[in-house]
Write a structure and sequence with these properties.
Layout (H helix, E strand, L loop, with lengths): L6 H6 L11 H10 L6 H7 L5 H14 L3 E3 L12 E3 L1 H8 L3
Antiparallel strand pairs: 1-2
Helix pairs in contact: 2-4
Length: 98
């Protein structure tokens, strides 16, 4: 189980060893989702990204593992209407930004 990472650790790129994937990249994703639930393609477009594999590895997976985001259809990850949204933990993390 990943430990929660605070905003300063994400911005500095320093996180506890238990959560090595948590970097500023998931933080950028959280900021995009602050506007509301989005599909993978909507998030990638907002972030000017094109590589789907990179996006899942470096953005979606770390944020899901840290429980900062969740899927609208968690039992069906490839659901055609899948959207991602901020969890209360993700909202809390963004709320602590200065």
């Amino acid at each position: 189980m990943a430990l929660p990472v605070n905003i300063q650790q994400l911005e500095a790129g320093t996180t506890p060893q238990v959560t090595p994937q948590a970097t500023p990249k998931p933080l950028e994703l959280l900021r995009v989702l602050k506007q509301g639930p989005k599909t993978r393609s909507e998030m990638m477009e907002s972030m000017n990204l094109t590589d789907v594999m990179n996006f899942f590895k470096n953005y979606i997976s770390p944020a899901l593992e840290a429980k900062y985001i969740a899927m609208q259809y968690p039992d069906s990850p490839k659901h055609p209407n899948q959207k991602y949204y901020l969890t209360d933990l993700g909202k809390s993390l963004l709320g602590h930004q200065s």
